[in-house]
Design brief:
Layout lengths: L1 H4 L13 E11 L3 E10 L5 E6 L2 H5 L8 H15 L8 E6 L2 H9 L5 H16 L3 E6 L8 H6 L5 H4 L4 E4 L3 H5 L5 H9 L1
Parallel strand pairs: 1-4, 3-6, 4-5
Antiparallel strand pairs: 1-2, 2-3
Helix pairs in contact: 3-4, 3-5, 4-5
């Protein structure tokens, strides 16, 4: 009966002719070392690859659990978008990630774990602000172009062998503070 009274409306999503591919990976070795790597490959300009060491202080702000690899895997695409927003503007994006828990949180935009939920929510907001349509795909670790970058850094990476320059980049303390922000403050931070 409800459907008989509903007024349908068309929502034009528009056509996205440009595409960007993102391969990302993370490594978490307790208690003191974590690194992530992301490679952003736009279809119309040079690719960007970065390796970032995650400081131990970041993990103190996260939910206490046996392993933080899921959170680290969520951080990689988040850093790619936050540091290279123009490469995502008005594009369709495909993200290749080798962690099922991270993909689930990104697809849903939330998680039962509060820290993963905040990071997934932030990523969805940033995608939305950039009018970027995203697809998240699981990839086996052995096929992930960013996998060896998260383990060995910028030397001898698969990306480098493919002609993609991967550079080390410092951690951004602003991103570390996102987990401590309340929901409305988070929206204000992202809007400003």
């Amino acid at each position: 009966a409800f459907l008989g009274h509903a007024q349908w409306r068309r929502v034009p999503l528009g056509r996205l002719d440009r595409h960007v591919t993102v391969a990302s990976d993370a490594m978490w070795q307790p208690p003191s070392f974590s690194r992530l790597c992301y490679i952003v490959i736009p279809d119309d300009c040079p690719a960007v690859g970065r390796c970032v060491d995650i400081p131990p202080a970041f993990w103190a702000a996260c939910k206490d659990r046996d392993t933080q690899i899921m959170v680290a895997e969520l951080l990689a695409p988040l850093l790619a978008i936050s540091r290279h927003p123009g490469l995502f503007q008005g594009r369709a994006a495909t993200f290749y990630i080798d962690n099922v828990a991270a993909i689930s949180a990104l697809v849903i935009g939330a998680s039962r774990a509060w820290d993963m939920s905040k990071l997934a929510f932030v990523l969805q907001l940033w995608l939305s602000r950039r009018r970027c349509r995203a697809w998240f795909e699981w990839v086996p670790s052995a096929s992930d172009a960013a996998d060896d970058g998260s383990r060995r850094g910028t030397m001898e990476t698969t990306a480098r062998r493919l002609g993609i320059y991967v550079a080390d980049e410092p951690w951004d303390e602003q991103l570390g503070h996102l987990l401590g922000l309340q929901s409305m403050a988070l929206v204000d931070y992202l809007s400003g």
